[in-house]
Amino acid sequence: DADVTQTPRNRITKTGKRIMLECSQTKGHDRMYWYRQDPGLGLRLIYYSFDVKDINKGEISDGYSVSRQAQAKFSLSLESAIPNQTALYFCATSGTTDTQYFGPGTRLTVL
Amino acid sequence: AQSVTQPDIHITVSEGASLELRCNYSYGATPYLFWYVQSPGQGLQLLLKYFSGDTLVQGIKGFEAEFKRSQSSFNLRKPSVHWSDAAEYFCAVAYTGTASKLTFGTGTRLQVTL
User: Is A16 left (phi over 0), alpha (psi -120 to 50) or beta?
Assistant: First the structure.
């Protein structure tokens, strides 16, 4: 079984819709992250959380919000999706070794 | 602010040939350095990392990387490329003391010809 899972794996939605991407991990890590990947831009950090009560904005947090429901769960929401949020979204976790482990990604298309 | 440059967007090598992917970083102190690989349709997999100590680090799948402080570089190498190595490779850097905020390069796509 995968250590970091993301749901859904693919999602097509329309402009203005609210959408939530979910991430779960079984690694027991305290730290969780959300990134987006765009062609030619690499990965950019959206939000990160060091524990359930500690949530921080990353490089590109505008238009996004997050919820850390438990140590193992970290959700990313787009309150009102827009086409330039079309991207590949990755969740990651890290523990005491400071190495981040990535989920398989969610491909989001906003029409 | 820290930054990472991968100057080669796309590289093509023949199977069995050697490979070197370049990575340069900008940061005032010694960073934590990582190389990740992303196969088509997959997430990112850690190849290797450098935190301190020996500047030549060995990773999975026969890859190695060398940290050169004087050149602010952390180039990835493999002596003999296999067709299954075709993927996108990302270099990443983080502040010493906390690798929790990674800055990624823009990636190098590797194509392997038979």
Answer: left
Picking from B42, B43, B106, the nearest residue to A42 by CB comes out as: B106
Give the C-alpha separation, A36 to B56, whole Å: 31
Average pLDDT, chain B: 91
Instruction: Please say if the pLDDT value at position B98 is more than 60.
Output: no
Residues 6 or more apart from A90 whose CB is under 8 A from it? A6, A34, A35, A36, A37, A43, A102, A103, A105, A106, B43, B44
Q: Do B104 and A43 touch (CB under 8 A)?
A: yes
Predicted confidence (pLDDT) per residue in B34-81, tens digit? 999 999 878 899 999 998 888 999 999 999 999 999 999 999 999 999
> How far lies B86's CA from each of B37, B81, B89, B113, in Å?
10, 9, 9, 9
Contacts of B34 in chain A (CB under 8 A): 99
